[in-house]
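Chapter summary example.
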Amino acid sequence: MLAAPTKARLMRELGSLAKDPPPGIAAYCPDSDITQIRAQISGPEGSPFEASKGGVFLLTVSIAGRYPFEPPRCRFITPLYHPNVDSGGRICLDTLKSPPAGSWSPAVGLPSLLLSIRSLMAEPNPDDALVPELADFYKRDLKGWEREARRRTALDATTDKLEKAESVLNGEVEQGEGAVAENGEGKDEAAVDAKTDGSAAGDTTKEGRPLEEKREENGREAKRTKC
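The structure predicted for these 227 residues follows.
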């Protein structure tokens, strides 16, 4: 249960998000639990995730009991082909980490935090990557990474898939219907696998390797990073 000052602050921030939302961001509580927030983030203009190309990304925000002295836990539900976001939707961003590892401060509010996440989408930080293989690809072949990011955005970040992901989080459909919960920390922290269009058993990477094999490798690499 939230302390009264924490609840009051959170209500103010949610009110601000509703009345004056940051550009490209719509945040809301799906039910009466104000500690479980969802945000729809439009892909930044000029990025491979651009909203005009269909890029709309679902994010969950879980408020910790010690907020604002502890940062919220944020995860992308919509898959994001990004060096700082892993296959489970976890995000490597200084603002999401407490000192000394990160730069979280009680002065940071939800509107500015969500803006920071959207800015990270437009400007990846390959030197603080969560997925080393994607960071290497980004550094080695930026145009190639952008092409693949655009392709995956067109497949994964559609309105239809966002609505399906919302339904899964709401418990309206079974997770087996094109969505898999990867994180057992609560329904709004479940990472929904929306890669149904590109994850058939016979799919391969550009290098000819099975996608499942490559994802497993990415997962092992991610565990070795500081994020």
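To summarize the output: The two ends are 28 Å apart (CA to CA).
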